[in-house]
């Protein structure tokens, strides 16, 4: 089985490098401590309604296109694990408040919870967060949910074998492998 | 995951003179986590102490070690490119790993614009050809060496030498024995036993043997000798002349530069994860050159080129996903490994107060780099920048501050080899001057450090010493 050779633990550090110095503290700790992104949460962090909300958020950040999106890749469980393992108590409460703020805004602006909105409406709320103008959410909310989604997605089995190309064994090295913009990249 | 923690393995140093002691704590030791770079020393390296007067002159020269380099290389399996250079003698090579397109360009630039500078693929103990006789498969370019290779593609104790030892039927592996000290018989001038602590039960016992090989890695080996205190040798075994623990060296490490090769090779990426970089052999202070630099000895570069990860430029959604499919620019790096002079005052000793969890005195370090190292480091950075610029690099970032001693993880010295028993600890065959039935065959015996990675030389000297021990044993001379 090819999948047994995937090393998500090492992939996390590689993906986190995308964000450089902007990497949020909990992910910084997760990388430093060699976290395994494939590990499920030991404790329940999200109530069911919030889990559905996170599903919807991550799917808008990395949507299904010609490859599956973040929801199908199981990113929500990854985020729950990171929050459980690497968020400090204050950070955790802040993040959960930010999620609530997104839902509160959806109800106020569109009279429906975030999960029931049209994709364009969901995107409008996420854009507000990116512009740091989402009432009741911390300025860091967008960076946090985006970085969590991206690191979770590209270290998932789908991210590493469907969105990106997983290199099998027997392996080889080609230092001049042809590439055209938009080609699928190789997994770390 | 194989590394020892400082909590469990504490040591002592002055805050103004930091020392990084990096080591594994597992069967197989550093062979599991090493960088696998393998380079022969040159004739000049063995003669360096005599030539400039630093440290203790080696009692052996290149010709003494050469056949043992060959022996080790054939056993270990080393891939690399033969260059025919006097300052970096060729090993017996398996086929070299390929350079990538950016490294090839850097090689061409050096050949064209820098007299006498060569860029080659790293010489590395990763197989490029199967060695079925050892049950080893060639490197699969997974880049997972540090976890221990399930193909046995790189040399490690587990992949090569433990199976060989087991095949003799004479191997007993004591995986939790911590050596505390050696038991010395002053009248017979020999070591009669090895005192150990069981790491699990804390029980103490003594192993008796006719010959002892002390090969615990530079620092623990020196620690064991220092801690082997007897009435005849109250300051440690072989330390009646205050030489043991002195002349500690490492390599100048983590100075160099890296830069972006903007707009170059954008139509290429890397396939596979090559567990190896490039090497630029020493080009400073070579034999026959007029000394015009402000430092003695030399350095080589390691580094390489590769594509940066995709860049995050804000936003989310399908557009972000698409942008994360586009790799960043190529970057190239050149980082020096410089020879550190053997200074008598760079030393380690036993702490008088601090002990570890086994009650063994902790090591206390007093090691610092000095003027020659600072001048060499400055040249390393300057020349790295010049070569990167010549290759068209932009956004060049310099690393100008050498890492603390020890961080190169090429620690050497402490029980130096020499002819004179009052000036050195071991003789030309790695035997303790004061107890010829003890062979010290790791970094501790190194009287100078060259600028190349040391492991191949450790292995060659160990094989040479073992062969000599067998001769002595068979002739009842030991």
How would you explain this protein's 3D organization?
The complex is a heterodimer of chains A (188) and B (478). Chain A has 8 helices and 1 strand, in the order ααααααααβ. Chain A is mainly α. Chain A has one domain. The longest helix of chain A has 22 residues, at 89-110. Chain B is 22% helix and 22% strand. Chain B has 8 helices and 18 strands. Chain B has helices spanning 43-52, 62-76, 101-113, 157-167, 218-227, 318-323, 371-390, 455-474; strands spanning 12-13, 120-121, 177-185, 190-198, 204-208, 212-214, 246-249, 251-261, 268-271, 278-280, 299-307, 330-339, 347-355, 361-366, 394-399, 412-414, 431-432, 435-440. Chain B has 478 residues and is α+β, with helices and mostly antiparallel strands. In chain B, strand 4 (190-198) and strand 5 (204-208) form a beta hairpin. Chains A and B meet through helix 1, helix 6, helix 7 and strand 1 of A and helix 3, strand 9 and helix 6 of B. Strand 1 (174-178) of chain A pairs antiparallel with strand 9 of chain B, so a sheet runs across the interface.
List key phrases describing it.
heterodimer, A: 188 residues, mainly alpha, 52% helix, B: 478 residues, alpha+beta, three-stranded mixed beta sheet
Task: Detail the topology: elements first, then pairings.
The complex is a heterodimer of chains A (188) and B (478).
Chain A lengths: L7 H9 L8 H8 L15 H14 L13 H12 L2 H22 L8 H12 L10 H14 L2 H7 L10 E5 L10
Chain B lengths: L11 E2 L29 H10 L9 H15 L24 H13 L6 E2 L35 H11 L9 E9 L4 E9 L5 E5 L3 E3 L3 H10 L18 E4 L1 E11 L6 E4 L6 E3 L18 E9 L10 H6 L6 E10 L7 E9 L5 E6 L4 H20 L3 E6 L12 E3 L16 E2 L2 E6 L14 H20 L4
Parallel strand pairs in B: 1-14, 6-18
Antiparallel strand pairs in B: 2-10, 3-4, 4-5, 7-16, 8-12, 8-15, 10-11, 11-12, 13-14, 17-18
Helix pairs in contact in B: 2-8
């Amino acid at each position: 089985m090819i999948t047994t050779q995937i090393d998500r633990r090492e992939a996390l550090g590689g993906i986190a490098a995308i964000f450089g110095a902007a990497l949020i503290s909990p992910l910084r700790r997760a990388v430093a401590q060699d976290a395994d992104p494939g590990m499920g949460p030991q404790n329940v962090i999200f109530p069911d309604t919030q889990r559905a909300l996170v599903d919807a958020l991550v799917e808008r950040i990395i949507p299904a296109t010609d490859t599956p999106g973040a929801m199908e890749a199981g990113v929500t469980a990854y985020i729950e694990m990171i929050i459980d393992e690497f968020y400090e108590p204050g950070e955790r409460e802040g993040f959960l408040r930010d999620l609530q703020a997104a839902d509160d805004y959806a109800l106020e602006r569109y009279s429906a919870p975030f999960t029931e909105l049209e994709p364009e409406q969901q995107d409008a709320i996420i854009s507000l967060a990116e512009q740091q103008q989402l009432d009741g959410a911390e300025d860091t909310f967008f960076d946090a949910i985006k970085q969590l989604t991206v690191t979770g997605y590209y270290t998932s089995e789908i991210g590493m074998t469907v969105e990106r190309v997983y290199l099998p064994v027997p392996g080889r090295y080609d230092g001049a492998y042809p590439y055209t913009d938009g080609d699928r990249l190789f997994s770390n | 995951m194989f590394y020892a923690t400082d909590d469990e393995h504490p040591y002592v140093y002055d805050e103004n003179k930091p020392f990084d002691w990096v080591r594994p704590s597992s069967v197989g030791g550093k062979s599991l986590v090493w960088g696998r770079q393998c380079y022969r020393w040159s004739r000049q390296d063995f003669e360096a102490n005599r030539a400039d007067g630093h440290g203790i002159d080696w009692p052996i020269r290149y010709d003494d070690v050469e056949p043992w380099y060959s022996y080790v290389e054939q056993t270990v399996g080393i891939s690399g490119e033969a260059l025919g250079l006097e300052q970096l003698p060729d090993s017996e090579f398996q086929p070299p790993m390929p350079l990538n397109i950016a490294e090839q360009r850097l090689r061409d630039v050096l050949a064209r614009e820098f007299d006498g500078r060569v860029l080659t693929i790293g010489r590395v103990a990763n197989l490029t050809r199967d060695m079925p006789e050892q049950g080893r498969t060639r490197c699969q370019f997974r880049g997972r060496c540090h976890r221990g290779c399930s193909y046995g593609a790189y040399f490690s104790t587990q992949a090569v030498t433990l199976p060989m030892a087991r095949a003799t039927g004479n191997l007993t592996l004591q995986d939790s024995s911590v050596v505390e000290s050696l038991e010395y018989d002053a009248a017979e001038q020999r070591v009669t036993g090895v005192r150990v602590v069981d790491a699990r039960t804390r029980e103490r016992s003594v192993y008796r043997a006719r010959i002892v090989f002390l090969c615990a890695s530079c620092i623990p080996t020196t620690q064991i000798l220092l801690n082997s205190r007897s009435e005849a040798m109250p300051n440690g075994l072989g330390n009646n002349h205050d030489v043991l623990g002195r002349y500690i060296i490492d390599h100048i490490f983590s100075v160099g530069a890296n830069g972006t090769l903007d707009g170059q090779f954008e139509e290429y990426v890397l396939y596979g994860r090559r567990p190896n970089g490039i090497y630029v052999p020493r080009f400073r202070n070579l034999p026959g050159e007029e000394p015009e630099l402000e430092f003695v000895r030399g350095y080589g570069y390691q580094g390489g080129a590769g594509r940066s990860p995709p860049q995050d430029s804000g936003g989310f959604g399908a557009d972000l996903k698409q942008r994360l499919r586009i790799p960043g620019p190529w970057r190239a790096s050149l980082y020096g490994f410089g020879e550190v002079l053997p200074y008598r005052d760079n030393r380690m000793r036993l702490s008088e107060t601090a002990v570890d969890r086994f009650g063994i005195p902790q090591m206390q370090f007093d090691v610092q780099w000095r003027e020659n190292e600072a001048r060499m480091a400055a040249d390393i950075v300057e020349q790295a920048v010049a070569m990167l610029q010549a290759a068209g690099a932009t956004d060049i970032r310099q690393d100008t501050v050498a890492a603390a001693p020890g961080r190169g993880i090429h620690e050497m010295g402490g029980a130096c080899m020499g002819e004179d028993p009052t000036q050195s600890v071991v003789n030309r065959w790695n035997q303790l001057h004061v107890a010829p039935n003890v062979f010290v065959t790791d970094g501790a015996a190194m009287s100078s450090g060259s600028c190349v990675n040391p492991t191949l030389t450790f292995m060659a000297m160990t094989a040479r010493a073992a062969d000599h021990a067998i001769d002595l044993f068979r002739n009842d001379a030991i």
